[in-house]
User: Fold this.
Amino acid sequence: MLRFLAKKLHFLQLLSQNSEDKQESKSRESSQTSLSRDITQNLKVLKDILGPSNDINIREFSFGYEEKVDAAIIFVDGMVEKTTINESIIKPLMYDSHLFTPKESQTITTSIDLIQRSMISVGDVKKVDSFDELVDDCLYGDTVLLIDGSHEALVISTKGWESRGVQEPKTEAVVRGPREGFTETLRTNTTLLRRKIRDPNFIFESMQLGQRTKTSVCLAYIKGIVNPKLVEEVRRRLKRIKTDAILESGYIEEFIEDAPFSPFATVANSEKPDVIAAKLLEGRVAILVDGTPMVLTVPMLFIESFQSAEDYYSRPYYASLIRTLRFIAYTITILAPAVYVALTTYHQESIPTPLLITMAAAREGTPFPAIVEALMMGTIYEILWEAGIRLPRPVGSAISIVGALVIGESAVSAGLIGAPMVIVVALTAITSFVVPAQSDTATMLRFVLTVFASVLGAFGIMIVLLGVLIHLSALRSFGTPYFSPLAPLSPRDLKDVFARVPLWAMFTRPRTIGWHDPQRQEFRLDPHPPPEESEK
Assistant:
């Protein structure tokens, strides 16, 4: 007990010490917020802030016709385009200095405006007067130009780090449709979206999250379609994030979701620009994070997990059939082990006699009950799944072959596992691939349903399913009912749930999301043959 109290007191002491250190550092930084007119003092402060890091380059030089002016540029090596710095910043200043003849009675402040307008041949140039903004821009790949005698500096966009090109996403492969996917570069991702939606009302809002990483985050929405209250709520939840690091969009997802203790995700994500563009056109808000190809969208509906981009590129009849198969596959993957355990343990009379005799013969000699077999095989399947993902691709395929053939066949031959259980687990594994967006939730539901089926049989399965249904009906995503349009029921939106009607019949946006501008196309756009010409 005394040791526990001592640890608590030590922890509180560390917290108070850290808060005092932060206040002291803030007070010290506040005294050095603004730039001075002395370039030597400014460089000294910058060297103190940036430290002795060897990737920080400071290039001091002088320019001018007769009256030399001291200047310096600061940039991070590896994050800038050096050709732009040499050809568009240093060369014009050092060789085009005739603009600064003694005959021109100009102050240095006026000269900074002249440099920005006439000498720096870069598209994005801005003036800053604080060290905080200057350091943030420099660490993000921009070049800072300091001039002696000026209390302002120029921040010149020279970003040019190595990045992955636009490629086909691995997680959302399609047969028909665009093959491009998001990358780890934020500006590339915004460009991919802008190519899809060329609307002047398409808005991008930038902010930085992470007190140490200062990760660039972009909020995307279409003004006039999206609900302004939704944008304000997303903005509020993002601004309240106070943490050291935002390294991936999953960090943000956990900070802004509505139900953090729910197994169901209330924030959607995708790697395909066409999917994000379609959701934006329905009235959603997208959150793009620098350094990751996964883009978040809110609000999210449960039905989104069963929809694919290819559903809207194919004819509606086959797309509706495939979507129905996804619902059947999801039902099988969460219920198959539980139903098998319930039937073999409590409800043998529900099994046809020939099948019951075959199953009894297959299970003869197995030492474990059905529940142990189900949990053991389910655990082995999850281990093989994780091993296949984490290992290199050639080894991962070998692991799958070993797990599926060698271990399964050996377990049945040794009499440890019954053959029907291997069939059930294999069917469960195959159907879990059909709806990848709900694979993690399906795994948890599968184990819970199997345990309840072993205790209460079919009654236990119904209790869990009823609890899940109630939870889904009560769940919300940014104020939108998660289980809509089924609960609350919206008959108008059922045209894109279990089946997909033709595109010309989908003339309204989802009622719970796009109510601000419900109509997305004209009525009576169904194709029809031209009228026959009257016979002459």
Summary: Confidence is low (pLDDT under 50) at residues 24-31. The chain has three domains: 39-156, 186-305, 316-474. The two ends are 106 Å apart (CA to CA).
